[in-house]
Design the sequence.
C-alpha cells in the first residue's frame, strides 16, 4: 500500500505539491493526470525517495520513505521522467548493473533478465550503446529496469511518452499484466491512456487533488455522459429531427455541429434519452446513418476540472 | 558492500567505452615522460633515482585529474541519471565511494603504466626499489586527494566546465601553498607556526618527502583524512543538490 499524508513540497515561493493525501491499494492502477507543472512528477519523485517532502509523510508497504528508504526502494520499481540512463552503456550491461545494485542472486538475475528482455523485445539491441537507440527503445530499457526485480510497487512517469501506437499498446498491456496484486502508479497527459489502463484516476493541478475517481466515474461527470449523437443520410431533414428530439422530456436540448452534420442530444438531468430517441427513429422511419451512445468525454471533464489551471 | 562494487564496476567500465580513458592514459604517459627527461634532467643528473619523475607529479595531476573528476557527478546530474541511481536501493555514500574508487583505480592504472621508467632506471643503475615503491604509493595517495576534491566539486554543479575550472583553481592552491616560493614569501614576517600550518595543508609538502622514499605516517594520514573528509562532504553535497 502507498499512503501519502499531507504531502507538501515547496520550492522557495512555489508550492509544487500542496497538502496531498491519498492511498493506493494493491491491485489498483492509478493514473495521475494534470496539466504540465501540476506536481505529478514531484509527487512521484517523493514516493520514489528521490525528493524529500517539505512536510507530510509517505509510507510504501508499511515502510516510511524518509527513514526506511532502502526498504521502500527495494519494493519500488521506478521509471523517472524522460527515462534517463547511461548513454554510453549497452542495455545488457545497464540491466546487469541494475540487477547487481538490487542484489538479485545469480540464478534469479539470469531468469529475470531473460524475462524482461523478452517482454520488452530488447533482444536485438542488447549490445548496442543506449546512445544509438531510438526513443522508443530507450523508454523500453527504462521500463525493463523498473520491473527487473518484480517490484510490489511500480511508479512510471510518462511510460508511453515517445512510443509509437504499437509500442504504446504493448506497454499498456504489460502494465495491465503486471498489475495483479501490485500497485501501479503512472502519470500521463494522454487521456485515452487512463481509459485504457487505469482503474482509478487522480486529477491534480497546482499541487492539489481536484478529482479522485474511476475513469468511468470521471466520464459520468461529462455533459456528454449518456448523450446520444446521430447522423442522417439526408442532412436536409436535420432541423425537423432536432425539433422532434428536443420535444422529448428526456432530452434537455440538442445541438448540431454544422461541419460534420452530427446532432447531439444532451440528456435532461438523470434521464436516459437513448430508448425514446430510438423509438422516434422507428416511428418516423428516419434515414439514419449513425447512432451513438456517448459515455462521456474525459478531455472535456479534464478541461472543466482543471479549467484555467493549464500552465 | 555489493552496491559499492556494482557502482565501481559500472563507472570503471564506462571509462573504457569512450575515448576518454585512452586519451587520458596517453597524455599522462607522454607528459610524465617528457617532464622526467627534459625539465627533470633524468640523464644529466646521473643518479639512479626516480626523483626527476616523481617531483613533477603534483603538477601533472593538477591538470590531468580535473578533466577526469569533472564528469563524475556533474554529468550524472545534467543527464538526469542521478535520479535513477538515487532511487535504486543504495545509500548515497555507496555511490560516492564506488565512483571515487573507480576514478582512483583508473588513475592508478595510468600510474602503473609508467613502469617502463622503472625498468629503465633499473637497467641504467642500481636504484633503491623500496624508495621507488614508496614514491609510487605516495603518488597514488596524492592522486586520490586530487580526485576526492574534484569529485566533491563536481557534485556542486551540473556544468562540467565549471567543475573543471573550480577544481583546477582549488587544487592549484592546495599545491602552491607548500611550494618554496610561497613559503619564502611568508617567512620572515609571519610567525613560523603559521608558515608551518600553511605548508602542512599542501599536497606539495606531504608528497615531497614520500616522493623521496620516506614514509612519514603524518603524510599518509593527511591524504587519508583529506580523502575521507572530501568523500563525506561529497555525500552531503549530493544529498542537498541531487534533485536540483
Sequence:
Amino acid at each position: 500500500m502507498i499512503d501519502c499524508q499531507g504531502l507538501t513540497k515547496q520550492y522557495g515561493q512555489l508550492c509544487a505539491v500542496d497538502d496531498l493525501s491519498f492511498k493506493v491499494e494493491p491491485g489498483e492502477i492509478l493514473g495521475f493526470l494534470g496539466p504540465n507543472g501540476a506536481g505529478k512528477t514531484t509527487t512521484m519523485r517523493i514516493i520514489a525517495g528521490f525528493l524529500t517532502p517539505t512536510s507530510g509523510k509517505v509510507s510504501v508497504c508499511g515502510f516510511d520513505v524518509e527513514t526506511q528508504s532502502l526498504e521502500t526502494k527495494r519494493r519500488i520499481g521506478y521509471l523517472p521522467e524522460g527515462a534517463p540512463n547511461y548513454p554510453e552503456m549497452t542495455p545488457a550491461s545497464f540491466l546487469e548493473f541494475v540487477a547487481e545494485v538490487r542484489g538479485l542472486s545469480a540464478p534469479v538475475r539470469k531468469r529475470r533478465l531473460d524475462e524482461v528482455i523478452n517482454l520488452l523485445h530488447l533482444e536485438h539491441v542488447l549490445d548496442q550503446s543506449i546512445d544509438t537507440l531510438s526513443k522508443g527503445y530507450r523508454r523500453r530499457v527504462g521500463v525493463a529496469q523498473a520491473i527487473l526485480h518484480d517490484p510490489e510497487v511500480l511508479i512510471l512517469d510518462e511510460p508511453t511518452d515517445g512510443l509509437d501506437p504499437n509500442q504504446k499498446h504493448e506497454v499498456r498491456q504489460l502494465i495491465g499484466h503486471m498489475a495483479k496484486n501490485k500497485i501501479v502508479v503512472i502519470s500521463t497527459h494522454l487521456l485515452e491512456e487512463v481509459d485504457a489502463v487505469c482503474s482509478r484516476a487522480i486529477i491534480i493541478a497546482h499541487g492539489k487533488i481536484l478529482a479522485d475517481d474511476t475513469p468511468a466515474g470521471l466520464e459520468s461527470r461529462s455533459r456528454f455522459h449518456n448523450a446520444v449523437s446521430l447522423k442522417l443520410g439526408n442532412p436536409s431533414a436535420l432541423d425537423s429531427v432536432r425539433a422532434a428530439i428536443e420535444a422529448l422530456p428526456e432530452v434537455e436540448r440538442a445541438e448540431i455541429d454544422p461541419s460534420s452534420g452530427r446532432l447531439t442530444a444532451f440528456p435532461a438531468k438523470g434521464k436516459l434519452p437513448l430508448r425514446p430517441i430510438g423509438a422516434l427513429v422507428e416511428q418516423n422511419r428516419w434515414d439514419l446513418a449513425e447512432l451513438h451512445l456517448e459515455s462521456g468525454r474525459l478531455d472535456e471533464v479534464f478541461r472543466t476540472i482543471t479549467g484555467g489551471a493549464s500552465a | 558492500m555489493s552496491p559499492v562494487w556494482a557502482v565501481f564496476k559500472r563507472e570503471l567500465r564506462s571509462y573504457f567505452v569512450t575515448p576518454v580513458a585512452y586519451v587520458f592514459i596517453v597524455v599522462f604517459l607522454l607528459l610524465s615522460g617528457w617532464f622526467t627527461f627534459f625539465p627533470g634532467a633524468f640523464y644529466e643528473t646521473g643518479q639512479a633515482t626516480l626523483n626527476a619523475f616523481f617531483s613533477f607529479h603534483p603538477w601533472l595531476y593538477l591538470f590531468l585529474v580535473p578533466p577526469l573528476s569533472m564528469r563524475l557527478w556533474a554529468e550524472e546530474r545534467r543527464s538526469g541519471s542521478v535520479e535513477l541511481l538515487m532511487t535504486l536501493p543504495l545509500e548515497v555514500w555507496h555511490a560516492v565511494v564506488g565512483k571515487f574508487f573507480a576514478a582512483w583505480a583508473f588513475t592508478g592504472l595510468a600510474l602503473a603504466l609508467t613502469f617502463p621508467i622503472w625498468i629503465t632506471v633499473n637497467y641504467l643503475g642500481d636504484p633503491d626499489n623500496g624508495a621507488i615503491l614508496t614514491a609510487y604509493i605516495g603518488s597514488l595517495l596524492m592522486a586520490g586527494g586530487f580526485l576526492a576534491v574534484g569529485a566533491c566539486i563536481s557534485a556542486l554543479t551540473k556544468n562540467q566546465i565549471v567543475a573543471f575550472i573550480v577544481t583546477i583553481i582549488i587544487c592549484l592552491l592546495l599545491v602552491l601553498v607548500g611550494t618554496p616560493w610561497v613559503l619564502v614569501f611568508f617567512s620572515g614576517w609571519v610567525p613560523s607556526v603559521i608558515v608551518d600550518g600553511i605548508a602542512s595543508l599542501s599536497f606539495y609538502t606531504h608528497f615531497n618527502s614520500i616522493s623521496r622514499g620516506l614514509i612519514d605516517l603524518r603524510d599518509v594520514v593527511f591524504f587519508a583524512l583529506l580523502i575521507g573528509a572530501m568523500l563525506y562532504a561529497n555525500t552531503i553535497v549530493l544529498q542537498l543538490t541531487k534533485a536540483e
Remarks:
- The mean pLDDT of chain B is 89.
- Chain B touches chain A through 24 residues (CB under 8 Å).
- Chain B has 14 helices and no strands.
- Residues 129-154 of chain B form the longest helix (26 residues).
